[in-house]
Structures are given as C-alpha cells and as structure tokens.
Amino acid sequence: MAAPFRFRASITLAAESTVALSHVLLPVSYNVYLVSSQGLPRSHHAIFFEIEADGSGFTFQVTGNIQQGMTHDHKGPAEKPENSDSFVSKVYLGSTSHGNYKRVEEICNAIEPPRKQFDGPTRLYPGVPLRRCQEWTQEAIAALKDAGVIEA
Q1: Tens of pLDDT, residues 95-141
Q2: How far is CA 71 from CA 28, 62, 89, 96, 138, in A?
Q3: Which domain holds residue 43?
C-alpha cells in the first residue's frame, strides 16, 4: 500500500496555546503499467502499479516455466521497473483508485497461472494453445478492466 503523503500545520491561538494539526492525504489514483523485461524464449510480462512518489510500487505476475508450471509471484514493494537490468519497456494501461487497488490481488489470484504443458519434449495438451506469462498478464489485465479496477 502506498505511503501516505503527510503535511503538518500549526495554528497559534490567543494566549500561548498552539494546536497542531496532522493530516494524511492519500493519492487519488495509482498509475498502472504493462512492464516487459528480457526473458527466453520471449520477454517476461507483468503488471506494475506505481504507488509511491519515487516511482516504486507493486508487481503482479506469474513466474516459472511451461516445463514445470507457473505460480503467482507478486512482489512489493518493488523498485521502479526501469531500475532493473532486464527492463525492456513500460506501457501505460490506465489508473486505479486507492479504493480499487485493494481488489487487485484477489482478481489477479483468481486467474489461474499457466500449468505444466510439457513432459520433456512431449506436449501434454496438443490441442490447447501454449500459455505463458504474457497470456496470463493479458488475461489479468482484461479481468482488472472488466471489474472496473483499471480505468482508462
């Protein structure tokens, strides 16, 4: 969750009384990006929510491979994607409100990670298209948009 922005103010009243006010301001929304990083045989895709003023945030993704299967591997706090040596690109998808951000993990976890699809060189489900992190990410983005969590 984002660290709130804070400001302090004080009001001096008659006599020598001082009332200190402390107020917490939460960001109205967070930017959401499709992040691509170097991978083999294709680039790795993830969804990045920029929740801090320094550009850091939280990454929602699956990791693993189609020989063994993949798992949810959400990370946060995560550095700015551009700070990674494997960074390729960051594409703006939209934004999400502070309130809707609380729903992201539940929605992403409802998208099944890609299962084991090979046993050595033998394809386990020849009639089914291969599904990797890129496909999972597109499905998760669609689910987040359909739920109204990511807004244009």
Answers
A1: 999 999 999 999 999 999 999 999 999 999 999 999 999 999 999 99
A2: 31, 5, 23, 24, 16
A3: 27-117+129-146
CB-hemisphere CA count at 13 Å for 103? 16
Cα–Cα dist 143/107, whole Å: 7
Can you give the length of the chain in residues? 152
Cα 61–Cα 2–Cα 94 angle in degrees, nearest 5: 55
In a domain, 10, yes or no: no
Whether 1 maps to a domain, the answer reads no
Domain contains 80: yes
pLDDT at 27: 61
End-to-end Cα, the chain, rounded Å? 21
pTM reported for the whole predicted model: 0.81
